[in-house]
Specification:
Length: 333
Amino acid sequence: MPINFWEKLKKKTKPILALAPLAGFTDSAFRQICKQYGADVLYSEMASTAALFYTLGRVEAGRAVGKNAAAKILKNTTIKLLQFDRQAEKYYVVQMFGSEPEHFAAAAKIITEVVRPDGLDINFGCPVPKVVKQGAGCGLMKDPERARAVIEAVLANTNLPVSIKIRAKAGEVTALDFLKHISDLPIAAVMIHGRTHAQGFTGEPDWKMIKAARKYFKGVILANGSVNDLAKAKQVLKLSGADGLGLARGILGRPWLFKEIKKDKQIDLQPKAVYKLALEHAALVYKLKGKTGIVELRKHLVWYMSGLNGAAKIREQLVKVNNLADVKKIFSA
Ligand SMILES: Cc1cc2nc3c(=O)[nH]c(=O)nc-3n(C[C@H](O)[C@H](O)[C@H](O)COP(=O)(O)O)c2cc1C
């Protein structure tokens, strides 16, 4: 029986710091870097439950995943996206998105048995119109009955702890309405993005709403939104009364923010140390994904430069890198 790591963290770790899901950024290399800098929980890239259901679920749902089936599943693109390093990525949570309980049931079963992460998470907060239109992300939060059916389907198909990520409000449904509606279900943790669906990714999150959520939710509560530095982290923990934080854009280019919060001390990395870190990140990505990883890394490299003065010229070069040698050359010049 897998441990409920959320409960374990709740007893021992204050505040609990999570790398929030950031599709397109949170691959294994970046998660490992964040872990090295103090993240307690690492969210995966977003896994499409429809993709898993249509490619694998019809065959496998409802049955234990056998040896041959597992080999086939391992070649699946979504499953490949979810691979992780058990030692270097503790605790690792796979986030699923979709709209159909049946898809979630199949995906939860397959991910639990084949990927074997430490936890499963359900996305109720994605505001991307294409996702919402399908009734996923915020579209699912707006529909508490369907949302409940989705959570029940996941719980019935995994022995891993299940968490959810919601917004302060989607449609007419507030985070409080939502949590009240599912308060009898054994959900281990909730990350609340304190902005409404209408706010998207800007504006001040509603920390009071997160504080009020405690009344309806007994598990771990993580506050999320706009935490970009140590001072803000302290303010949010105080105002929200949360058990911890989900850090998203604030750690892009500065994963040491985890360490700053853990140690309650500001860290001013000199440019040379930032270059060294960016190079370590590049070497790790190259090891795991080869040249494709380096091209994908360009956006991270630009973020690393964002806090440095006079880095415009380096940035211009970084957006063109194609292999590890290119990155090494730029940082050693
Ligand atoms: C590029 C990008 C990708 C994201 N991908 C996901 C995702 O896959 N799942 C999810 O629940 N939230 C996702 N989010 C939302 C973040 O987890 C977070 O809730 C949001 O950025 C607010 O936090 P922040 O203000 O600290 O960035 C994403 C945000 C961004 C900017």
